[in-house]
Structure prediction request, 550 residues.
Amino acid sequence: MYKVQSLLFFSLPTAPLFAQVTAPSLIGRAGGESSQGPRPNIVYIMTDDHTAQMMSCYDTRFVETPNLDRIARDGVRFTHSYVANSLSGPSRACMLTGKHSHKNGFTNNEHGIFDGSQQTMPKLLQKAGYETCLIGKWHLVSRPTGFDHWEILPAQGDYYNPAFIHEDGTRGVDSGYVTRIITDKAIDWMEQGHSKPFALFIHHKACHRAWLPALEDIRLYEDKTFALPTDFHDDYATREAAGKTEMEIGKDMDIVYDTKMFVNAKETPETRLSRSYQGMIGRLSPQERKQYDDFYVPLSREFYEKWGKDYNFLPKQAKSSVAGSRDAELLEWKYQRYMRDYAKVVHSLDQEVGRVLDYLEKKGMLDNTLVVYTSDQGFYMGEHGWFDKRFMYEESLSTPLVMRLPKGYERRGVIDEMVQNIDYAPTFLDLAGAPIPADIQGVSLAPLLKGKAATKEDKAAIKNWRDAIYYHYYEFPAEHDVRRHYGIRTDRYKLIHFYGHDVNNWELFDLKKDPHELHNLYGLPGYEQLQRQLHHRLELLQIQYDDPQR
Prediction:
């Protein structure tokens, strides 16, 4: 790695790039008794691969999400919300522990098991007198700990008639659609009544591939044409690692798996994923399967009549972007199918979030409940020609975060401060009046939530809020071939280091001038001082978080 010889700041421009490292938000804290009234319940709703572009309170181009928007409208919406490692399991581990991946030990999905014996936020809430419950996706290999009750999906889980593992180790299959079933189970648990404040973690499978919709939603969005992102035909010039991945909708999205074009082995080609896909829809009852096939089979046959069986061998997207070409037409067709199916899954998710809100309101619990909605990371909806996540580029580094606040926390509207998913654990502990262990690396968001009730200490914390976040992605070699990398993001700049295997290079972006991150500025004349400053600040963050990568 690029090394600095001193921990003193390089001279900065007139407008400082970075706050002081000694800001209160960057040192150990201890949460005292809550001064905001009764300790609130916590309802934490987390989805999989749901990106901010597909929430209408963030972006109105694609879908409408009235119930998710309702949380933002009645509470707060974070505009600079980031993850520490853009991958499902690691992201969940960061949330549970309040620590970066190298500290909680779960760096990637391919290897390892989450160490459930370690300190976690649910365990600390239990110690503070909370009842805790987890329903839905776990994806951490080991069995959950720190929960009074749990029911989890095995591995990724299934959309249709899914299996659940219960806390006693038994398995059962529930009839129906997974998003609705998870909501049913969460509401049933709340219905049992609780003498203590509770923390309920509702972890949905949606919006993970293969984006199988609720059957009643199967024809939604079929009349909508989604606009291509402006960087859809990105050629990855000056970004070597971006060009080495297998995430392109055109050449890497296996149509049998991700756009459901498999009919049967005689009519359509089998691929490495067709058996997996057939297992997913094979869970449907005969009546349900007929409803599913009535929609997708005609679509599949029409596709193969037009494109033949060599559909999956498109050239690089930069070469297939000529308007009117057969490749360009097929590429856009695949994009539209991807967007429509993803949007259908979001629709049912939004409805089920509405059910939870309605239940809390009906039971008179909304004013004493923190409702959090977020995702394990962002996702590419065609930006750079991609699907999936993993990169430190904006669409997957960012994650939606909206909160409806309990009484005593009066902030409303947009919150622009930089927050990260390692902050959830200390925030929940803080609101619960529980001590925040000094080894937790995240920062309580409570000062940002109080509004007019903020104390002098809160205001000082806000004034000295972090001005940069640290990111580290580890999973390579693995699905999609995204190289390992780490980096720093400030309010304007981003510095990334790709390392190991066949890459060892740096990327620098000016997010104000280049929000799509198309132009790597690293090494160009005129950016020498900025590079030194960012390298130095990156190393300070690695020291602060004790990441041995430095």
Notes: The two ends are 6 Å apart (CA to CA). The chain is about 30% helix and 15% strand. The CA atoms of residues 115 and 142 lie 7 Å apart.
